[in-house]
Amino acid sequence: AQSVTQLGSHVSVSEGALVLLRCNYSSSVPPYLFWYVQYPNQGLQLLLKYTTGATLVKGINGFEAEFKKSETSFHLTKPSAHMSDAAEYFCAVSDHRGGFQKLVFGTGTRLLVSP
Amino acid sequence: EPEVTQTPSHQVTQMGQEVILRCVPISNHLYFYWYRQILGQKVEFLVSFYNNEISEKSEIFDDQFSVERPDGSNFTLKIRSTKLEDSAMYFCASSPITGGSETQYFGPGTRLLVL
């Protein structure tokens, strides 16, 4: 069965510092992986996704993630944090074995950015 | 940019009462989903809906739950007799097509509190 583990329910960084949010997955089929962000009082917004091809995926707002099959990881990074990056981040893997897609999410990581 | 909307944003109800959560998916989307997140836990898939019928449901989606597309725009989740453990954030999502790599577009959620 598909599953996702996000290490760290909270990550704190200073503005300008590197952001690293960890995600490990388990999948019985080649995985499709997603990162969503949730800003306060808003819905889940897609940051980026990996389907096939290039393992380094670039998303919105300067975020990127690298798919590493050998490590079953899909960590999210951003070279320099901005105050506006403070939000909750969710990693998800697609379960589409039945023909219809459902997303299997991790527990989320709240990113705190201090001045 | 088109977005998924949900109403109400917050709902408080008494145990045993019926609640209806409403969603307006993006207009040209054909696949609809409900997810929920109990406080501090993972976002969990509840149900997917296509062509006016349920395509897949999780074990959480028991007989107390039902979904409906009563008209061309709304997509509703009904809980017939709410329990304390139904307290959660409920997210609606939609996608134009389905398949493992498709992006699901999420609404801002309805926070349900059952007293």
Brief summary of the model shown:
The complex is a heterodimer of chains A (115) and B (115). Chain A has 115 residues and is an all-beta fold. Chain A has no helices and twelve strands.
The coarse overall form of chain B would be globular
Q: Ends of chain B: how far apart?
A: 37 Å
The N- and C-terminal alpha carbons of chain A lie at a distance of 41 Å
Determine the strand fraction of chain B and express it as a percent band. over 45%
Structural class of chain A: mainly beta
Order of helices and strands of chain A: EEEEEEEEEEEE
Tally of DSSP β-strands of chain B: 11
**Average pLDDT taken over every residue of chain A:** 92
As a percent range, the share of strand residues of chain A is: over 45%
The level of helicity of chain B is under 10%
| Largest sheet properties of chain A | 6 strands, mixed
Question: What is the string of helix and strand elements of chain B?
Answer: EEEEEEEEEEE
Proportion of helical residues of chain A: under 10%
Instruction: Say how many strands of chain A there are.
Output: 12
Question: Explain this structure to me?
Answer:
The complex is a heterodimer of chains A (115) and B (115). Chain A has strands at 3-5, 10-14, 19-21, 24-26, 33-38, 44-50, 56-58, 64-68, 73-78, 87-95, 102-105, 109-114. Chain A has 115 residues and is an all-beta fold. In chain A, a hairpin with a 6-residue loop joins strand 10 (87-95) and strand 11. Chain A is globular, with a radius of gyration of 14 Å. Chain B is globular and about 35 Å long. Helix content of chain B is 0%, strand content 50%. Chain B has strands at residues 5-7, 10-13, 19-24, 31-37, 43-50, 53-57, 65-68, 75-79, 88-95, 105-106, 110-114. The chains are: A mainly beta (115), B mainly beta (115). Chain A binds chain B through residues 29, 32, 34, 36, 41-46, 49, 51-52, 90, 92, 94-96, 98-108, and chain B through 3-4, 6, 9, 31, 33, 35, 40-45, 48, 50, 55-56, 58, 91, 93, 95, 98-109.
